[in-house]
Amino acid sequence: MLSTISSIYFLKHKLKSDSNSSMNSYSRIKKKLISNQKIWLITGVAGFIGSNLLETLLDLNQIVVGVDNFSTGNKKNLNEVQSFLSSKKWKNFTLIQGDVTDIKVCKKACKNVDYVLHQAALGSVPRSIKDPIATNQSNILGFLNMLVAARDANVKRFVYAASSSTYGDHKKLPKREHIIGKPLSPYAVTKYVNELYADVFHLSYGMDSIGLRYFNVFGKRQTAQSAYAAVIPIWIDAIIRNQEIFINGDGKTSRDFCYVDNAVQANILAATTSNLNALNQIYNVAVGDRTSLKDLYIKLKSLIDKTTNTLHSKVNYRDFRDGDVRHSQADISKISNLLSFSPTHRIDEGLFETVKWHFKRIK
Fold first, then answer.
1. Which candidate in 286, 307, 336, 339 could, as Cys together with 330 as Cys, close a disulfide (CB 3.0–4.6 Å)?
2. H/E stretch holding 259
3. CA gap 40, 50 in Å, rounded
4. In what helix (H) or strand (E) does residue 307 lie, and over which residues does it extend?
5. What's the CATH number where 108 sits?
6. Among residues 26, 115, 160, 187, which one is catalytic?
7. How many CB atoms lie within 10 A of CB 151?
């Protein structure tokens, strides 16, 4: 099955070479890290993005401390990362099971750490509308606790997961970091407050941070049960099993879908940059393109149907979700210029890798 989908994909899609200067910059940083071991803290380490960060950093010979309360993270993600690595590299990982809403956990985790990659949060716009108190507790109190703990531990850099939801009702495309609208959900409010707190900590305490506004990140270890940008894994599972798919709205809603390897790259570049002008900034993390839900379905259907011979056609349309924006597309010129970011995967390459991972899970 996997060999079939690989041959189909690569006949039509060839990955572009990494000859540009931005990609060379990232390659140099990874090469340098292998021989220059640092201590990293990843909050939300058992989550989708957190576990991908863990895999990359351990593979680069780094020491990693991880924090997770397993409310949305999954121990299976950590087990999968362990299966990909040598026992020597895996021994560089220490897990602290705890919650970032507990300041004691945060201070313990930050001890002797060089870089913090703060991913822990309660994601999902619908969840925040249903339970704004829990979202506020995790995303604002937890964030503030981590800022205090990182400040007191004198970490070199605090990198955190911001969100494209911060753009709110601002309609103009592409989205540029310095122009935002009114938040459309409690989740969006919490992520904007994170940016405000990070800025205040720089002004008040001289603490350096970088915020990364993720645009619909997807990829391996994002399951159909994931609360964050769940449309892709839900649809993959449904198409594979020839089950019904629901499209919110008329199918023309569009997103700047960003494969998880691009998000990992952004975190590493942000943590290690020596460009002083790049510090204490907010950056879009995306590919600078957008795909409608209807086109996303067609792409996934094309990838999966040719492998399973299911010819999926069970599609139904329903109302728009509360709090959702109509269109989203990022301007990535700022992160490209200041952090030398260059996406390794666009939508087609990312979907191929994601579908391949899902097929491995169901074999």
1. 286
2. strand 258-259
3. 12
4. helix 293-308
5. 3.40.50.720
6. 187
7. 17
Distance CA 131, CA 257 (A): 26
Is 167 noted as a catalytic residue in this protein?
Answer: no
Structure-token pair, residue 91: 């021994």
* pLDDT tens track for 290-309: 999 999 999 999 999 877 77
Tell me the pTM.
0.91
Distance CA 112, CA 153 (A): 7
Write the CA distances from 65 to 41, 50, 97, 153, 250, integer angstroms.
5, 11, 11, 14, 44
Q: What is the rounded distance in angstroms from the CA atom of residue 25 to the CA atom of residue 23?
A: 5
Q: Which residue has the tokens 């989205």?
A: 175
73-101, pLDDT tens digit by residue?
999 999 999 999 999 999 999 999 999 99
Rounded to whole angstroms, what are the CA distances from 73 to 15, 158, 236?
A: 31, 21, 20
Q: Which one-letter amino acid corresponds to residue 353?
A: E
Q: What is the 3-state secondary structure (H, E, C) of 140-154?
A: HHHHHHHHHHHHHCC
Nearest-CA neighbor of 330 among 194, 217, 208?
Answer: 217
Gyration radius of the chain over CA positions: 20
Residue 88 belongs to what domain range? 2-362
Nearby residues of 310 by Cβ (< 8 Å), 6 or more positions away: 239, 240, 242, 304
